[in-house]
């Protein structure tokens, strides 16, 4: 079942695992399999660049090492380099055309719709694991939406869409299917559009398939439905023929739903929270060109993609490095109990998957992103082990709206870059 993650608050991680060289690993001491094992361990520790180095060494030892090929492919996809990801997933697929992970990874990294559908169908013929429902739903959605989905009416012009600052997060006003105005929470930890049941009931949406909403909390994913919308309009921007997710409850308090900025991936996205403006800048604009090249944009940072989530590297209290989810849909930032030893006040925090116990801390936490020091004045701690297990790596935190509301956030989904600026 396809899910749209709505993250309330997340966590900080343990320090990175030691680098390969520090561990004394060299070509005379290990085999190809040991290098791919090492790559897996480094990936789980969120040491992605060293993990890639280990996987490449495994391939150098033995080009038939399928785990090495798939490890490099996975990291390339996290860096938004889908051409490179497709090349390595293709190599893994050629090595074992019946490997479910190779089939699914290859399908997710190519643009060819019919070829992707063929690979999805092949995946279902060899696997009925946890991904099977999601793949089945994606086949149905592609069949019912057709070849051209989420089509921007005029991608060559720029847009300036007003936002409202609220205690819960930034709100964007929009119309779906030309009906009454909706208030959507702009959530960088979400994907696409997810609507509350009551708001969606007024929109004349067409049913596509069953779905589920995943996110923060200790319960099961919330049941939902995928629906087709003819149009989305906001600030002069029009997008046609898109899928939206409808929760079977009032999942998003204080708004009609959430919108993930990945819906605007055809543009350089600039979320100017202090000025309350969402700017969408065409990639051929000179401003966009100056901010979409990591080598020329000194203030830009690599945004690692974990499914639809964006992770950015930061340093906690000047001593611990890790990766943080950028999450404007979260009212606060959370810190793992592994790093914060103060007990704090016990409380419950509700997310898409129910409530989880947290502790409100009585001190500030500083997170440095490049040259910018961001101060969370009211951090919350919780146990992050379930979240880490879900994504297979150490997630080093979440920058919530209480922290992000004071910065301008530029997001380039095409090249996998993020820029954080203070006024």
Can you walk me through this structure?
It is built from 11 helices and 24 strands. A hairpin with an 8-residue loop joins strand 6 and strand 7. The chain has 423 residues and is α+β, with helices and mostly antiparallel strands. The two termini are 41 Å apart. Helices cover 26% and strands 32% of the residues. Among the domains are: 32-145, Tetratricopeptide repeat domain (Serine Threonine Protein Phosphatase 5, Tetratricopeptide repeat), CATH 1.25.40.10; 151-284, Acid Proteases (Cathepsin D, subunit A, domain 1), CATH 2.40.70. Helix 2 (48-61) packs antiparallel against helix 3 (66-78) and helix 6 (113-126) packs antiparallel against helix 7 (132-145).
Short account of what is shown:
The chain has 423 residues and is an alpha+beta fold.
Number of strands: 24
Name the average pLDDT: 86
Q: Radius of gyration over alpha carbons?
A: 21 Å
Q: According to CATH, what is the topology of one domain?
A: Cathepsin D, subunit A, domain 1
Strand fraction equals 25-35%
SSE-based structural type: alpha+beta
Shape: globular
Q: Per CATH, which architecture of one domain?
A: Beta Barrel
CATH superfamily of one domain: Acid Proteases
Count of runs of 4 or more consecutive helical residues: 11
What is the CATH level 1 assignment of one domain?
Mainly Beta
Q: The biggest beta sheet, please?
A: 6 strands, mixed, barrel
Q: Residue share in helices? A: 25-40%
Going across the biggest sheet, name each strand in turn.
Answer: 3-4-9-5-8-7
Q: Which residues sit in consecutive blocks of at least 5 with pLDDT less than 50?
A: 1-28
Please report the distance between the alpha carbons of the first and last residues: 41 Å
């Amino acid at each position: 079942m396809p899910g749209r993650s709505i993250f309330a608050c997340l966590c900080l991680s343990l320090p990175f695992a030691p680098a390969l060289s520090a561990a004394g690993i060299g070509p005379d001491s290990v085999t190809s399999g040991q290098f791919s094992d090492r790559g897996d361990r480094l990936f789980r520790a969120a040491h992605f660049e060293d993990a890639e180095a280990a996987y490449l060494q495994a391939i150098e030892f033995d080009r038939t090492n399928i785990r090495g090929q798939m490890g490099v492919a996975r990291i390339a996809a996290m860096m938004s380099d889908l051409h490179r990801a497709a090349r390595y997933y293709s190599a893994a697929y050629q090595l074992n055309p019946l490997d479910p992970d190779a089939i699914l990874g290859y399908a997710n990294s190519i643009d060819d719709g019919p070829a992707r559908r063929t690979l999805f169908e092949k995946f279902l013929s060899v696997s009925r694991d946890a991904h099977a429902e999601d793949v089945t739903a994606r086949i149905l959605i592609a069949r019912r939406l057709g070849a051209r989905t989420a089509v921007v009416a005029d991608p060559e012009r720029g847009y300036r869409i007003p936002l409202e600052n609220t205690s819960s997060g930034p709100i964007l006003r929009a119309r779906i299917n030309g009906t009454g105005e909706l208030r959507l929470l702009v959530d960088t930890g979400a994907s696409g559009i997810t609507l509350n049941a009551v708001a969606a009931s007024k929109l004349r949406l067409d049913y596509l398939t069953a779905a589920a909403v995943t996110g923060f909390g200790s319960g099961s994913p919330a049941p939902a439905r995928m629906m087709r919308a003819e149009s989305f309009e906001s600030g002069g921007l029009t997008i046609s023929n898109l899928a939206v997710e409808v929760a079977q409850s009032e999942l998003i308090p204080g708004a009609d739903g959430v919108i993930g900025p990945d819906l605007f991936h055809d543009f350089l996205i600039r979320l100017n929270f202090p000025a309350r403006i969402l700017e969408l800048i065409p990639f051929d604009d000179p401003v966009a060109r100056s901010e979409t090249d990591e080598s020329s944009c000194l203030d830009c940072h690599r945004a690692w993609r974990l499914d639809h989530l964006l992770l950015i590297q930061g340093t906690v209290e000047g001593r611990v490095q890790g990766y943080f989810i950028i999450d404007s849909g979260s009212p606060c930032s959370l810190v793992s109990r592994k790093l914060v030893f103060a007990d704090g006040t016990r409380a419950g925090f509700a997310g898409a998957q129910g409530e989880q116990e947290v502790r409100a801390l009585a001190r500030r936490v500083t997170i440095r992103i490049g040259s910018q020091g961001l101060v969370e004045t009211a951090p919350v701690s919780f146990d992050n082990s379930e979240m880490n297990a879900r994504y297979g790596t150490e997630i080093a935190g979440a920058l919530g709206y209480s922290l992000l509301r004071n910065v301008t956030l530029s997001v380039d989904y095409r090249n996998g870059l993020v820029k954080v600026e203070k006024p």
